[in-house]
Automatic annotation (TrEMBL):
<protein>
    <submittedName>
        <fullName>RNA methyltransferase</fullName>
    </submittedName>
</protein>
<feature type="domain" description="tRNA/rRNA methyltransferase SpoU type">
    <location>
        <begin position="25"/>
        <end position="167"/>
    </location>
</feature>
<dbReference type="Pfam" id="PF00588">
    <property type="entry name" value="SpoU_methylase"/>
</dbReference>
<dbReference type="InterPro" id="IPR029026">
    <property type="entry name" value="tRNA_m1G_MTases_N"/>
</dbReference>
<keyword id="KW-0808">Transferase</keyword>
<dbReference type="InterPro" id="IPR029028">
    <property type="entry name" value="Alpha/beta_knot_MTases"/>
</dbReference>
<dbReference type="InterPro" id="IPR001537">
    <property type="entry name" value="SpoU_MeTrfase"/>
</dbReference>
<dbReference type="GO" id="GO:0008168">
    <property type="term" value="F:methyltransferase activity"/>
</dbReference>
<dbReference type="GO" id="GO:0032259">
    <property type="term" value="P:methylation"/>
</dbReference>
<dbReference type="InterPro" id="IPR004441">
    <property type="entry name" value="rRNA_MeTrfase_TrmH"/>
</dbReference>
<keyword id="KW-0489">Methyltransferase</keyword>
Length: 181
């Protein structure tokens, strides 16, 4: 097997990304402290054609040298908006008929592997602060809460890892729905 180089990968450019049909997912990052986590979520969002990222609260915004280190240009391809108050974003998305799901460990959460996506539905995935998680008010306002099953001794994952796992899961489930048509 030959390792592929960039030219072999046939990636789209930023203009093609902007005009491509997007995966019906928006990501909401609330009070994310680490610039590298923010950049990583941008890069993952680029990889799976995510529609938009909302950066809320203390979450830093591009342009930023530290975000760029992990985003590697994805801040140019993925649309993003800054909003001071995450609850305003949640209410706006719900008013637009977007299904809002917090990713958190709570009573009566749905395990990610058991969560069913639906065709013709746009989803918002809310990821919270690295220490405090998703705010209780956001959990209360969400249409539901998704939890990533974990079997080891640790009780949490890095927020950018969590975002990658959940985005990938939604992406492949949504594509499976499209393929079954």
């Amino acid at each position: 097997m030959k390792k592929l180089i960039l030219d072999d990968l046939n990636r789209i450019n930023v203009d093609e990304f902007k005009s491509a049909t997007k995966t019906p997912i928006v990501v909401v990052l609330d009070d994310i402290r680490s610039l590298h986590n923010i950049g990583s979520v941008f890069r993952t969002s680029d990889a799976f054609l995510i529609e938009k990222i909302y950066l809320c609260g203390i979450t830093a915004t591009p342009p930023n040298k530290e975000i760029h280190k992990t985003a590697l240009g994805a801040t140019e391809s993925v649309d993003w908006v800054y909003a001071e108050n995450v609850m305003d974003v949640v209410q706006q998305l719900k008013a637009e008929s977007v299904q809002v799901y917090a990713v958190e460990q709570v009573e009566n959460s749905v395990m990610l592997n058991q969560f069913e996506v639906h065709a013709q539905t746009k989803y918002a995935l809310v990821f919270g602060n690295e220490v405090k998680g998703v705010q209780q008010a956001v959990v209360n306002a969400s249409d539901g809460v998704i939890e990533i099953p974990q079997l080891g001794t640790k009780h949490s994952l890095n927020v950018s890892v969590s975002a990658g796992i959940v985005i990938w899961d939604f992406f492949q489930k949504l594509n499976a729905l499209q393929d079954s048509k």
